[in-house]
Write a structure and sequence with these properties.
Blueprint: E1 7-12, H1 17-20, E2 26-30, E3 40-48, E4 51-60, E5 71-76, E6 87-97, H2 105-124
Antiparallel strand pairs: 1-2, 1-6, 2-5, 3-4, 3-6, 4-5
């Protein structure tokens, strides 16, 4: 699925699971209500102020962690800044994987590593 829709949101505090797993993410609360993405993992472009970054976007309910609220989060590649409460925009470029529930956190982490490797390869092509 290819998109050309930029989404705008505010960076909010999450539960830091991504950081604990070795993949820090920004959690996003959308400010535009026309969100129409299916759950899954996407390559994404991210804009923060006038800077552009690439990342791995996750849209889903974090079922492996037994959470039920929809989460929108991005692991921005080569990025380590505190941007809580800042407005960002992101463009989902391509969906790579459907949302899955894994049997353990360890299995989830192994899949995230594979997802990131796949998306980095996409950006480097």
């Amino acid at each position: 699925m290819e998109t050309n829709q930029w989404y705008i949101g505010k960076v909010i505090r999450g539960n830091n699971n991504g950081r604990k797993f070795g993949f820090p993410t920004i959690n996003i609360e959308l400010t535009n209500n026309n969100f129409a993405l299916s759950t899954g993992v996407y390559a994404a472009e991210v804009r923060i102020n006038d800077e552009h970054f690439r990342g791995m976007l996750y849209v889903g309910k974090r079922r492996t962690l037994n959470l039920n609220e929809l989460s929108i989060e991005i692991n921005i590649f080569d990025f380590d800044r505190d941007i809580y409460d800042k407005e960002i925009s992101f463009l989902p470029l391509k969906k790579f994987f459907d949302e899955q529930k894994f049997n353990s956190v360890e299995e989830l982490i192994e899949h995230i590593k594979y997802y990131k490797k796949t998306i980095l390869t996409y950006f480097n092509e």
